[in-house]
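Worked Example 4.2. Consider the chain below.
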Amino acid sequence: MANTILLADDNEKLRRSLTHILEESGYLVVEAATGTEALRLLNSSAEFDLLITDLVMPDMEGLELITRLRNSHPKLGIVAISGTFDGKFLPVARLLGVKETLEKPFKRAELLKAVESALSKTLLPALSFLLEAPGLCQF
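Applying the procedure from the previous section yields the following structure tokens:
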């Protein structure tokens, strides 16, 4: 089953391009044009494995979106992207717990590497209980 990614970016052309790249690579992608729309989708019954969010959007900044999600969706993997102010907001996203960041413009391979890395960091902690629980998983 393919991982489902929520992609939040107010730049429609970039959003469509990233969606195309991700779908070609086997991911299911749901687009959001605003941070508010992304938050609404994340709080709906839909399940997402990863959020890719721009940090500078007109209605709700990506940093605010990330902060809100850390309370309501603490295990959600997040990739933060930004091209504004020479990527100066990306270190702030890392302080908020984002494991993968990309400064625009970035290459296809960089995007896919960040997505794979963020997904693996999300899935591994969820499975770690198997290794820690005595008798559950024997090798």
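Residues 4-132 form a domain with the Rossmann fold fold (CATH 3.40.50.2300). The first strand starts at residue 4 and ends at 8. Compare this with Example 4.1 before moving on.
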